[in-house]
Amino acid sequence: MLKQIEGSRAVAEAVALCRPEVICAYPISPQTHIVEALGEMVKSKRLSPCEYINVESEFAAMSVSIGASAAGARAYTATASQGLLFMTEAVYNASGLGLPIVMTVANRAIGAPINIWNDHSDSLSQRDSGWMQLFAENNQEAVDLHIQAFRLAEELSMPIMVCMDGYILTHAFERVDIPAQEQVDAYLPLFEPRQVLDPAEPISIGAMVGPEAFMEVKYLAHAKQMQAIERIPQLAAEFKNTFGRDSGGLIRTYRSEDAETMIIAMGSVLGTIKDTVDEMRIEGHRIGVLSIISYRPFPLEQVKKALLHCKRFLVLEKSLAVGMGGIVATDVRMAVTGAGLKGYTAVAGLGGRPIFKSQLHQLFRQAEREELPPVTFLDLDWDAVNKQLAREKQTRRSGPVAENILHDKGIVSAKFG
Amino acid sequence: MFQIRVHGRGGQGVVTAAEMLSIAAFEEGRHAQAFPSFGSERTGAPVVAFCRISDREIRSREPIVEADAVIIQDPTLLHQVAVFAGLKSEGYVLVNSQHGIEDLGLGEFATEHRAVRFCSLPATELGIRHIGRPIPNVPLLAGFAALSGIIKLESVVKAINARFRGQVAEGNISAATEAYHLVKEVACSSR
User: Fold this and answer.
1) DSSP one-letter string for B156-184
2) Which residues of A touch B63 (CB under 8 A)?
3) B23 Cα to chain A: minimum distance (Å)
4) What is the fold, at CATH topology level, of the domain defined by B2-190?
5) What is the share, in percent, of chain A residues with pLDDT greater than 90?
6) What is the pTM assigned to this prediction?
7) Residue B190: is its pLDDT beyond 50?
8) Contact (Cβ atoms closer than 8 angstroms) between residue B4 and residue B21
């Protein structure tokens, strides 16, 4: 059913359609509206049987999810930013134990400086946690990926993060087709756990594993993600059969047939990128787009195939490997090792910095002309940066960086441009 | 694509206004996208929200730079925030005020931008009278419908019913209806 609905509310509807039996989350912006809506549904018994468990922290939220999943319940949680970091130890436990928890990450920057707005630092910090990570381009895809995520997680008995851009998607009202319960039931079978804590048949989960077996357990986690590379496109195709639309998959290309320059990105910025590329195509630029939906597992072969025909590529990413450059770009470069392509990285949109089409036009043209340095910081205020650097050179006690920059910029009011 | 910016202050229902506008457009079978600003939202602080309306899927996520319409929920923002930045030459401006454009100090701007269609509406007063609260957002939406013709009053009413229930919905509907007729009949005749 088509609805004009907030992204968070739409995701809550999708999660409810997946019939979770235990939901345990701790509120943190910009994820809060999702679990609030689910809490209401559980309380009103619209979502039943389901237990909504209030906890005191994200660490507890993930720990309860682990317990619920180990007891054979379909478990769901959601978090963002510092919340994800706070639960990190349990995040690794969930995947290490092979428990198919689905978690929405409403992507948000990590402090300090504290910042509630969007970038991809939070879930990318969990790159090696053993969780799969799927990125939604818009709210329809966020809805659809949750349904696919439960199916994939439970098939493989491994957890998945469905990543959606905080505020930009979670707080956006747009048209979303909310599937019917029968459709979701037809696509997503009942949860049949691979391992279950059952007093009638006692087992232990979470044994200490020494050097004699640790590598094998870790390798099997890797092998599961390699299986996911096979299964993700199949599940997306099945999804299309049931629901009638393309959603999910490993990657997606756009106007890439004869493209000499390819732009690579994840998440909601792809919409702005596609509009920019359409405008450039009208002017005759041979430019295309590669969307990465599955960040983990990373589809090396598929990315390579999508890029081999081009001459150069630009990875535009909302994340920064401090001291190195791009995070996504590293994986993309790995995919095309030896192919002789020129590769560029643009770090953009950190901490919610808006990304404008006008900036992309300029950036993409620079990439086309191969005028970019290996790593570019889109819309970085060099005056502010240089002023602080000069201050630090002049004075030992130069003070806190964030406060200095805020002062220099005279931040007082809401910005919109 | 028609792009609207709603400027106001935290607590005035700025984000709600943009969301309801998107619902009204959706009710007319159109694509619409509403989203809040990228800034701190505190009671009283300047806030901006955005709404795009189109007959095609809306993909861009950039904040609205070139606006077809600007709705200003608090006239004190006129001197604090660049509310008219990027306003298109034949755009619409709706200001929440009991005063006319000249009294608001916008006479010069109006002369320079002759094609821009200005209007003011005492939306706070309408809110107090019909809803019992000084919330101007819904009357302004109805006023915007009257000024621009981009959406119908009945779609605004549908959006009100999607958001509110009971007395609050009724109060908002009567405020919207009066606002719509005020803009249609009175406020814009003397531009």
Assistant:
1) HHHHHHHH--HHHHHHHHHHHHHHHHIII
2) 354, 356, 416-417
3) 6
4) Pyruvate-ferredoxin Oxidoreductase; domain 3 (3.40.920)
5) 97
6) 0.96
7) no
8) yes
